[in-house]
């Protein structure tokens, strides 16, 4: 939020510290802002080619979906993602900037506000961010949760567990085993149980805090 306010340029580049982009990213993205209705432009995220560990392979397959077909055309999207994005400062300020009260999903919130003001979010598949981060099992599972949750929708823990369980066993683990990747299949099987444990632990912490 502060970075947007303090910037002295009409466009602001956001890039996570664990990601890298090439030196053509900004020039390529800027071309789309000739249309004044465009508020943000970004592309896809891929693993850095140097990452070969099981966590990174799982992330590539099931989170970044690198093995799946990706739209090759420049198109409008309905969710703002800020792992590497160019933003139009004027629009961001006009809709109220990032919400400083949100600890996560602040990009979803800003994206919704931009869309509600009839602005557009654009995805260009040639704009690529490369993730350099090595995940632990906890950061990987929680990243999956963030990517598959919405900030203003409450979730039933059991229903969410059953949904993740179904996806993990019937899609992720199945694909892993078909490809002969046993280590990735173990991550897929572990995912729903870790998130269930995490959710109950958070509930207990809140209960204990309120009980004091």
Task: Please write out the topology.
Elements: H1 2-6, E1 11-15, E2 19-20, H2 25-30, E3 38-47, H3 54-63, E4 75-77, E5 84-88, H4 89-94, H5 106-116, E6 120-131, H6 137-147, H7 157-178, H8 182-211
Parallel strand pairs: 3-6
Antiparallel strand pairs: 1-5, 2-6, 3-5, 4-6
Helix pairs in contact: 3-8, 6-8, 7-8
Concise overview:
The chain has eight helices and six strands, in the order αββαβαββααβααα. By secondary structure, it is an alpha+beta fold.
Give structural attributes.
212 residues, alpha+beta, Spore Coat Polysaccharide Biosynthesis Protein SpsA, Chain A
Account of the protein in words:
The structure is a single chain. The model has no long low-confidence stretch (mean pLDDT 92). The chain is 48% helix and 17% strand. Helix 6 (137-147) crosses helix 8 (182-211) and helix 7 runs antiparallel to helix 8. The protein has helices at 2-6, 25-30, 54-63, 89-94, 106-116, 137-147, 157-178, 182-211; strands at residues 11-15, 19-20, 38-47, 75-77, 84-88, 120-131. It folds into 2 domains: 2-131, Spore Coat Polysaccharide Biosynthesis Protein SpsA, Chain A, CATH 3.90.550.10; 154-211. Strands 1, 2, 3, 4, 5 and 6 form a 6-stranded mixed beta sheet that branches.
* Rg on CA atoms, Å: 19 Å
CATH architecture verdict of the largest domain: Alpha-Beta Complex
How much of the sequence is in beta strands? 15-25%
Tally the beta strands: 6
Shape: globular
Average pLDDT across residues?
92
Structural domain tally? 2
Amount of helix = 40-55%
N- to C-terminal distance = 34 Å
Structural class: alpha+beta
Q: Class of the largest domain, according to the CATH hierarchy?
A: Alpha Beta
CATH superfamily of the largest domain: Spore Coat Polysaccharide Biosynthesis Protein SpsA, Chain A
Task: Give the SSE order as H and E letters.
Answer: HEEHEHEEHHEHHH
Major sheet details: 6 strands, mixed
Number of helices: 8
Weakly predicted, low-confidence segments: none
């Amino acid at each position: 939020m502060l970075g947007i306010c303090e910037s002295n340029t009409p466009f602001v580049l956001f890039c996570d510290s664990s990601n890298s982009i090439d030196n053509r990213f900004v020039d390529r993205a800027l071309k789309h802002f000739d249309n004044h209705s465009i508020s943000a432009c970004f592309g896809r995220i891929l693993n850095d080619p140097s990452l070969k560990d099981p966590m990174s392979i799982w992330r590539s397959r099931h989170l970044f979906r690198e093995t799946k077909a990706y739209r090759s055309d420049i198109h409008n999207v309905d969710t703002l993602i800020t792992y590497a994005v160019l933003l139009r400062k004027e629009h961001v300020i006009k809709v109220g900037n990032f919400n400083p009260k949100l600890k996560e999903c602040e990009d979803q919130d800003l994206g919704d506000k931009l869309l509600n003001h009839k602005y557009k979010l654009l995805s260009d598949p040639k704009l690529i961010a490369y993730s350099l981060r090595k995940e632990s099992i906890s950061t990987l599972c929680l990243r999956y949760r963030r990517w598959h949750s919405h900030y203003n929708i409450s979730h039933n823990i059991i229903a969410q567990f059953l949904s993740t369980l179904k996806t993990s066993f019937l899609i992720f683990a199945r694909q892993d085993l078909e490809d002969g990747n046993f280590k990735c299949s173990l991550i897929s099987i572990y995912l729903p149980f870790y998130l269930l444990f995490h959710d109950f632990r958070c509930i207990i912490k809140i209960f204990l805090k309120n009980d004091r």
